[in-house]
Amino acid sequence: MYFFTPTTSSRISSRDLDFCSNFLLATRSVCSVVPEPKIEEFTVKNEPVLTYLPGSKERCELESALKSLSCSTEEVPLIIGGEKCKSNNARCQVMDQIQQAIKVASEAQKCWDTVPLRERIKIWLKAADLMAGKYRQVLNAATMLGQSKTVIQAEIDSACELIDFIRFNAYYAKEVSKYKPVSPLPQQTLNSMRYRGLEGFVAAVSPFNFTAIGGNLAYTPALMGCGVLWKPSDTALLSNYIIYKIMTEAGVPPGVVNFVPADGPVFGKAITGSPDLAGINFTGSVPTFNWLWTETGKNVNGYKNYPRLIGECGGKNYHFVHPSADVETVVNGTILSSFEFCGQKCSACSRMYVPESLWCKIKEGLIATRDLLKVGDVQEFDSFIGAVIDDKAYKRITSYIEHAKCSPDLEIIAGGKYDDKCGYFIEPTIVVTKNPKERIMTEEIFGPVLTIYVYPDNKIEEMLTLIDTSTPYALTGAVFAQDMEFQTYAMEKLKLASGNYYVNDKSTGSVVAQQPFGGSRMSGTNDKAGGPHYVLKWASPQSIKETFVPLKTWCYPYMAK
Ligand SMILES: NC(=O)c1ccc[n+]([C@@H]2O[C@H](COP(=O)([O-])OP(=O)(O)OC[C@H]3O[C@@H](n4cnc5c(N)ncnc54)[C@H](O)[C@@H]3O)[C@@H](O)[C@H]2O)c1
Ligand SMILES: N[C@@H](CCC=O)C(=O)O
């Protein structure tokens, strides 16, 4: 129907083992049924972040992409088996189409899995080049306009992180496939392992806040031989659709990844109710992941395989400041972490612990720096942040600001205003709390609201315990201290309090292959996107033992009379 012709590397090949001539079967040439994986050696590097200085080539190209996208409308369809499916109410009434997509993906998987890994890798590397070149500014412009990201926030997401995910996962897949189990007597017995895609289909359910995450969730399972239904977020449709189109242009065949924008619960019901569900690759909030997990649990007796459940969820990320910390680093790191992209990164700092001895300087620095931040249209290159994603987010975030205004334990020391007359704009807001367990210090807000607890310098130990125990999350955290003995101690005390831990650096901004990302506890299954092991989550390994010596007896030597 479609797909590539398997190349020689997937045909049966022979292994000439006569170099082991001293062995029992000295001159015998052994025929193995397992093909030798032949994947060209290549290495990859992180995609450089472009500067967008006035007059630069990338800035001119981005401005022109913004202009063209902002005065056009693009209809984003469902795409099943490569065909665009139109519906009068595509978002809500797609149950039939989802069922069709499940069928197509599960069928396509069988064929796609026969395509040698080296051919798949070639497609991925080509796609990464398309993203880094021809389509870089279209991806960035769609992310800026659709998700309200500034230039730099789009560049690190929809350009660099996306390209890195695609390139590094191809590299990791190649490295993983080199593994050979031990074969102590290779002329008699040869052990090998092959990686199969998961039988059935994988549902990739992505969040609004990172274009790159959508690409990673959908296309890493596909790289490893899975068939995928990709449900993008309603509020990241255009940028995600562009990824789909680029991957298709690079050579991903129809049906392997099916692009299925849909109402969340409708999609969730359909996939968890299918016997062919092989896995869910989710990133988003805790309630959504818990819902998917619960539904999967309810249906467990109906599945053909145990579905793999991978979910990267929310956080309540901390900055802990020790009395020995460098104040300037603390101030700049906290402003960036708490307020960039309106605090809508799962890694954003939203609770901070400052010693009384440094509070005066840190407070002054935070307020002065915050006052410099421009909140405005992301197409104006001097804007620090744009609007928050939608009305729901606006209501949730401003409810915390209103709570801060009313609560006797809380004081807003900077910001606190918001306005939705023309977009959902919220000022970066700094709150001080007298109560370190106040709900503003424990619940995920996912907006530009930072709350600070000022602690007595002699209560460091209590603070470390509090950080570890006062929220259900464990995503990211940062400790600022020049005292390296304390750093060593804190790293042990806070071992379980985050999946990504920063020393004298902000809690955001992980880079693929440099800081593989993910948290534990209620922050997720911690499968470390951007790390070397992630590809294996989407493969079903098969161990193969081949015996070349006839079995002449059933009798063990010690039994002989
Ligand atoms: N840990 C991480 O790596 C990471 C990264 C990015 C975002 N996040 C988290 O994501 C959240 C913000 O993203 P969001 O607002 O898009 O999250 P969300 O949970 O609202 O939505 C995520 C996705 O799930 C879909 N969905 C909603 N209900 C569903 C259901 N019943 N069945 C199936 N799909 C359903 C949505 O349509 C969307 O595509 C925050 O909590 C943030 O911390 C975590
Ligand atoms: N990986 C990103 C966060 C992704 C979640 O939103 C960071 O490290 O800042």
UniProtKB/TrEMBL annotation:
Pathway: Amino-acid degradation; L-proline degradation into L-glutamate; L-glutamate from L-proline: step 2/2. Gene3D superfamilies: Aldehyde Dehydrogenase, Chain A, domain 1, Aldehyde Dehydrogenase, Chain A, domain 2. One of its GO terms (molecular function) is L-glutamate gamma-semialdehyde dehydrogenase activity. It catalyses: L-glutamate 5-semialdehyde + NAD(+) + H2O = L-glutamate + NADH + 2 H(+). Coiled coil: none annotated. It is an enzyme of class 1 (oxidoreductase). GO terms for cellular component: mitochondrial matrix. The keyword Zinc-finger does not apply. Keywords: NAD, Oxidoreductase, Proline metabolism. The keyword Zinc-finger does not apply. It holds the Pfam family Aldedh. Its EC number is 1.2.1.88. Residues 96-542 form the Aldehyde dehydrogenase domain. GO terms for biological process: L-proline catabolic process to L-glutamate. Belongs to the aldehyde dehydrogenase family. This is Multifunctional fusion protein.
